[in-house]
Predict the structure of AMP-binding protein.
Amino acid sequence: MSLYDQDLDPTPANHVALSPVSFVERSAEVFGDLPAVVHGARRYTWAQVRERSARLAAALRAHGIGRGDTVSVMLPNTPEMVEAHYAVPALGAVLNTLNTRLDAPLLAWQMNHCEAAVLITDTEFSPTMARALALLRDEHGRTPLVIDVADSEFAGPGERLGAHDYEAWLAAHAPLPRLEGPADEWDAIAVSYTSGTTGDPKGVVTHHRGAYLNAVCNAATWTMPHFPRYLWTLPMFHCNGWCFPWTVAMLGGTHVCLRRVDAQSILEAMRLHRVDHYCAAPIVHNLLISAPAAWREGIDQRVRGMVAGAAPPAAMIEGMARLGFDITHVYGLTEVYGPAAVAVKRPGWAEADLSEQTRLNGRQGVRYALQEGMSVRDPQTLAELPADGSSMGEIMFRGNLVMKGYLKNPAATRQAFAGGWFHTGDLAVMEPDRYVKIKDRSKDIIISGGENISSIEVEDALYRHPAVMACAVVARPDPKWGESPVAFVECKPDAAVTAEELIAHCRTLLAGYKLPREIRFEPIPKTSTGKIQKFSLRERARSASAIE
């Protein structure tokens, strides 16, 4: 034993488990009179949000909810969703945010898998949730307590499914004196399900320590000031809103809730509420670029956006720069709490021309300050590859911003953590300045005549055509080359282009073997966060490489 260990044990005075719940208590204490939530006509201060969250926690506790119990929520970006992110973890319970675009069988499967004891659901989703609850009861024998949320901004009637109305339930319980958080920071804070493109989805279990540290990292990475006005364009059900429910609480900021995401609603909220920060996938940023200039009138404040969820096309980064929006590119996965790497903008980059700035900012970048490791490694040997911009391997992470593992799936957990690193499945190179650049998902590389074609590179070329709103490139079987690229394209409103014109455009930017052999003008399936579902397109193309 070292002399520095003698009579120097941790005590409640000098050692407290890290939990983002503490941010809510602090903001209520020191910024209690400041705005915390804006939603339609509703306004709540930090003191009111803390009280409402403490009432929700008290109501859940009265129902017997405590450490390790699961509370599922089927909610859009509303005040109730914000409150769930504070109340549920305060009890040591686990928050399961359900994707509002899933079908009933998958929702029932997820709630059964995580053993949901309570469901809080918005009445807009009652038709789907009624079927999901029936399946949950009949096929799995599980009947959670159901609480209905009748949101003030939902115009429809909405069937009530549960035993309690949310507002009445809160009013019936005195608030807990304090939102405490867990005794052990390794306790689970949330379980979030991956998309499950084949087979059952995996339940990603995250912990209080990681959520706390990533919330802090968000602020440090973005150099966010106190009192940001943050617009909820990113669904909070996706990776717990990349931990921003807790980042905004830490900074005493304002959650500007947005029930539905479209360009006009986003820009109107920015103007009305002086929004200065938001997060979104590339497709949402493209909507803003394509929006009529009149919708942006009156937005004279500095607006900072964060983009992730898919590799951003160069045309998107250039387009946002021309609008005057300051875009930060981050990279991550559900398993690392959302963003865990960032294309940090170095001072010298501002002197480069727009094309070079776009190239630099389009990289996935370097690890978050509180993530201990990010590396490009050979997926078989785990050897670290040189930072030469050409040696391609798999991006791997290690550190506090990595999940606990997959719920009830020890084999998948062991595989994901093989060799002491979390394996992302993303193929990339490390450039000489130590910034990572993704080349593709391992399953999205197209092998044509023995040559590797990056679907991202082909998509970047297509996005540079002014008529293209969204595109995705996948492999299709080719009798001569084995595989060849096929592109699915959605055009901008009032824009028209032929397949021949797009291929000719790509020919000016790509080598001949990389050109799409076919262009299909078809709707492109996307997740609720705007991420393109390539597995569906591979099925359409009947790709021989569509093995997940």
Notes: The domain at 446-541 is CATH 3.30.300.30 (GMP Synthetase; Chain A, domain 3). The chain has three domains: 45-208, 261-441, 446-541. The chain has a mean pLDDT of 91.
